[in-house]
Design goal:
Elements (H helix, E strand, L loop, with lengths): L1 H28 L5 H29 L5 H27 L9 H18 L5
Helix pairs in contact: 1-2, 1-3, 1-4, 2-3, 3-4
Length: 127
């Protein structure tokens, strides 16, 4: 029961994280950049990323997947998604009110990496 609760928390946090990353990208790319909206979106993103990492690490410990190829690939992809988050955050902070500060490739990378993580989860071999 604890495992399923942590897994549910992890999934909700991932949805919030990726959703808020898309929101941050949309706000940054829009012609009407609202600083208050951006601050709220970045707070949600930062909270979600922390919960995602903590719940994910808890799941790895509970499942004993330290040497699993599936887990190693997933953690590498999650690190790249975290880097995209950092890129967007720094880009926004440096631009502050600059329009179109997020490159369109960020969308493709974000969606592609998210799909890769989903595929890794769906096709994971049961222990």
């Amino acid at each position: 029961m604890i495992y399923l609760s942590v897994k549910a928390l992890h999934i909700v946090a991932v949805i919030l994280w990726i959703g808020s990353l898309v929101l941050v990208t949309a706000i940054t790319a829009s012609s009407k950049l609202n600083s208050d909206q951006m601050h709220v979106a970045m707070r949600i993103t930062e909270s979600a990323i922390g919960v995602t990492w903590l719940a994910g690490i808890a799941l790895v410990v509970m499942g004993g997947w330290y040497t699993s190829t599936w887990w190693i690939v997933k953690i590498a992809v999650v690190i790249v998604i975290s880097a995209v988050h950092t890129f967007l955050h720094r880009r926004w902070k440096s631009a502050n009110t600059d329009q179109n500060s997020a490159h369109p490739v960020v969308w493709v990378v974000l969606i592609g990496l998210t799909l890769l993580v989903v595929l890794l989860v769906v096709f994971k071999q049961p222990a």
